[in-house]
Structures are given as C-alpha cells and as structure tokens.
C-alpha cells in the first residue's frame, strides 16, 4: 500500500495561521537522487511541544533544517514564525534556537567562550551577555565547568551546554534534533525534563527522535514521519482515538476460549484474541468493565486477569507504520463488531 | 527587529525560486566569527608553536647563520663564489647593490633580494594551512550545523573566516620582518656602510603587494575549503592555488620585480583589483548547505 501523506487542515485564515509557529505544506527536498522530504505537511502549534517521530532517514533532520532556512527546499510552502525562511531566513534564525544531534561545540574553547560566541552571533545586548551566560549555565547545571575547555566535557555536559546555548538569546522557537543521543538514561531524563520546562516557559518546541519512550508524556503534538512524508499528525490523544476509538482492556481466563463470547456483547467495539492467548477488548467506555466481568462471572467464566490498557505512543507508532506499509490493519479494524449488538447471555 | 526587516508572510505561498533577501553586512557578527576562530588558534598550542617556529627559522635562524658566515668568514674565495651567483640578478638590480667590501655587497644582495621569498613563503604557508581547514573543518567537527542555523549570513562567515586565515600568517610575517630587519642590520651594516634595511621596495612589498596576493590566494583556498570533503583534501588542493605567491617570491628573489623598472605600486594595485574581484566571487562558495555537508541538494 503506498504511503499517503496525512495533510493537516489547510485553512488560510489568519486566525488559524496565528495558532501555529511553523507550517509546512507539500515540502519536497532531494539530495541528488534521494528524496529527503516528500510532500511533507504538518503544523507546529504555538507554545507546545511537537515531536517528530520516525526511523533514521525519515527526514526529521532535513525538516528541522528547512524550518530555520538552513536548507531551502524548492517545492512547497514553509512558514516559520510568520516568515518564509528561504527568503527571510535573517528574520527567522535569530528567533530560533537549535540543538543538533551532535552538540556542535568548539572543543578548544571553554564552555563560557562557546556561549559567548553564540551570544555575540545572536546579538544579545552586551550588558546582558555575562548575566545570561551565568544564568543559562546554572539552569542547565554546567556553571561549575564553564571555564574548562569543552573538549574535556562528558557527552551529557556537552548536551547541557548545547541546551544552554540554544536559549541564550531567548528564542521563540527551539528545535531539538535527537537531543538525548548518546546520553545515559539519567542524563537523558534530565534533558527531557529541561525540554519540558522550556515549553512551560512559553516557548514552542520541536523535537525529533526515534526513541518513542522519550516522546511519551512529553509530546503535545506528534508527527510520524516515514520516507520524508508525514504519516499522521495531531495530539497523541487525538491520534490514539483515531486508531482506538474506545478504551481497551486485556482479559484472561483459566479457559481463554470462553472469553470469545463477549465479542458480540453490547459496548464491545472490537475484540481480538489469538488461540490460547488473553483477549484484547475495545470498549465504548471504561465503565463497561464491571458489566463485562459480572457477565462473564455469571456465565461461569473464571477470570484470571482484568487489565485496563491505555495505548502507548509505541502502540500508536507501530500501528501507524503498519497501516502505512500495509503490513496489517490498525487494531480497531481487527475483529470489528457492531457496537449496537446486544450482549447475549449476560442480559445487561 | 530592524526597520529593514521583512513583513511576516502569514503563511502566504511565495515563489521559492526567488533569491533570499540580502541584508547589509553586520560588522559585529563578522568580527565575532573572525575573533572566535583566532581565539581557537591561540588556544591551539599544536598550531601556533610550529607557526612561530617557522617564522623564527626563516626570519631569524637562517639569515643570521648565512649573513654571519659571509661577513665574518674571512675566506675571500667562498665570498667571491657566492658573489658570482649574484650575477643572475638583472643589471638594474645589480646596480642597486650597496657595500664597501665584497662580503658587504654579498650580504646586501642576500638580504635584499635572495631572502625575499621568505617574506612570501611564511604567510603563504601559515595562512593557507589555516584557510584550508577553516570551512571544511567546521563541517568535519559538526560545528557547521551551528553556523548554518545561526543568524550570521554566509557573507559574514566568509569574510570572518578570511580575516581569521589572513591575520596569523600576515602578523607572523610583519613581526618576522621586523626581527629580520634588526638581524641583517646588526650583522651586515658595518660591511654595507650603515643601516640599510628595510629598503623602500621591501616596505612596498610588505604593506602593499603581499596583502592582496595573500587575499587572492586565500579567496581560492576558502573556495576549496568550502567545497572539498575533508581537510586533507583541502590542504592538498591549496598547494596548487599557492602558485601566485610562489611566483611573486621568485620574482623578488631574481630581482625581476623590484630590481627593474616595473613599478611595485602598479603590481600592488593590479593585485588588489584581482584580489577584490576574486574575493567577491569567492563569497558564493559558502552556503549553508555546504556548512551542513549536504551540498548535493536539489
């Protein structure tokens, strides 16, 4: 099945545009024969964290580079902070902060000099430079190492320094390209917390990653990319509802086959069970669980497990990619039964 | 945002074939790029120690040994043999040689004509080494990504890098030239008949001719540095574009440039015109895509 890009709403009204700090429409970019972006379209809502998810080579980095105007795709439309970065990059870049996958620091310079370089390039007022450097360094926990050459920093310290550098000029839009790459779990967690803080401070954040766990709980908005195209975009809840309209519960019994009867009960949106395995039941509401349990108990089914399950970002990601590749259908489609079917046997 | 800033497009689709709007060069940012590069050089002991050693060898050690040997050797035969080699100089140059003794005349000719290539080789070696690594080095270290996303324009980056490449070689040369002047006068002034160095043509060479030749060579080296895939490749290729300065060195050492009727002022003026033209063309070689290392974009 060919991948069909999911195009976000295309209203041109000013009201809609002002909600988004970044909008890409049908952006296509090639490196020689390689298509890096293929009619890519998505929006980045203001003051929220948008996570670009996708495997290596999906076009995440190219998308970030296009947003700041570091790369200039010929086809499609890009609006960043109200400007086309390809024409008015000089208006866009001073308002963006970027942390790339490699921290892109000058190893021979001290941490302070790295920050100073950025402050001067981004025209931070001279009177504020030292105070801002000290404050940013303290915030990211690298103030004690500011005088040391960056070549001696650990990977975690370099990432923290790159984060500090990215906000020194108080940008409106911050873009992170795999910011936890190469970090140990503790440092990665700390970095993600700092990114969350940036959003709470009113900045718009775009982060790309192939690590689903780091997007979980952090993303207000996700864009799943594959082969340079957006497979799906929206808030995790919104997209989850699109794939799993109801709540899900995992049920198991001493004799799992006995669970099949509930497939046609009222409130069961979808039912899935492999032979000898527990059942995954999609319901029209979590409140159906007591009814189900009572009905099964009344039928003499000895239930061994009742586990409500909220689909994770990982479930969502793989569902989206499976659907795009045509490898399988989204869970909601499997074993679908009419929601109006009355429960047989339990009399609910 | 300045008054010259563009109006937000509010999502309007704009022709992407249009060129980016050009802004005046921000001198502060340009100098920031240059000074930060220079700061890195200063902190790189493994770079500046050989640079100082090179200057010391060419401007101090070799001239001292040679001139001291000639003026204090006392062997008339050797001095006259060296003196004979000076006959390769054009008659106009030979006519300008001063000195009360054969060793004095030999010392004068060596100091004024034959050591001249030194004044060219030192800045050439140092500046091309810096220039060749400057842009491709940003890409290799990954710091090109930082510059590509930064507000610095490609013109500011190019000129900043040019300054950072030119300054170490030229400053070393000027300082070395001062040391060299002192050395040759201290050793040979007695035999020449008084302090004789620097001569007028040497001053013109140092402050009027070498800078544009160096700038021209660097404009070519920076173009290479922006295009090649590795610092090693840039170093190799920069050897070729150093030819203009090597020609200048030979011209001076044989007296063809400043021993003849060709006006050094004219040579310098021509060099400045060529350098400025080449620099203005060279700025196009720096693109954000090249800083990112994705220059084969379509």
Number of domains of chain A: 2
Task: Return the average pLDDT of chain A rounded to an integer.
Answer: 84
Sheet bearing the most strands of chain A, described? 6 strands, mixed
User: What is the chain-wise order of helices and strands of chain B?
Assistant: HHHHHHHHHHHHH
Number of strands of chain A: 13
In CATH, the topology of the largest domain in chain A is named Rossmann fold
Helical content class of chain B: over 70%
Contiguous low-pLDDT stretches of chain B (5 residues minimum) are: 1-5, 10-15
Task: Please state the overall shape of chain A, judged from the principal axes of the Cα atoms.
Answer: elongated
Main beta-sheet annotation of chain B: none
How many domains of chain B?
1
Terminal CA distance of chain A reads 41 Å
User: DSSP helix count of chain B?
Assistant: 13
Mind sketching the topology for me?
The complex is a heterodimer of chains A (348) and B (298).
Chain A: H1 14-17, E1 20-31, E2 34-45, E3 49-53, H2 60-68, E4 75-80, H3 89-92, E5 96-99, H4 111-121, H5 126-139, H6 155-167, E6 173-177, H7 185-200, E7 204-209, H8 212-215, E8 221-226, E9 229-234, H9 236-243, E10 247-253, E11 268-273, E12 279-283, H10 288-298, E13 303-309, H11 313-325
Parallel strand pairs in A: 3-7, 3-8, 5-6, 6-7
Antiparallel strand pairs in A: 1-2, 1-4, 8-9, 10-12, 10-13, 11-12
Helix pairs in contact in A: 4-5, 4-6, 5-6, 9-11
Chain B: H1 27-43, H2 45-72, H3 76-85, H4 91-95, H5 102-114, H6 116-141, H7 143-149, H8 154-192, H9 200-227, H10 231-241, H11 243-253, H12 264-282, H13 288-292
Helix pairs in contact in B: 1-8, 2-5, 2-6, 2-8, 3-5, 5-8, 6-7, 6-8, 6-9, 6-10, 6-11, 8-9, 9-10, 9-11, 9-12
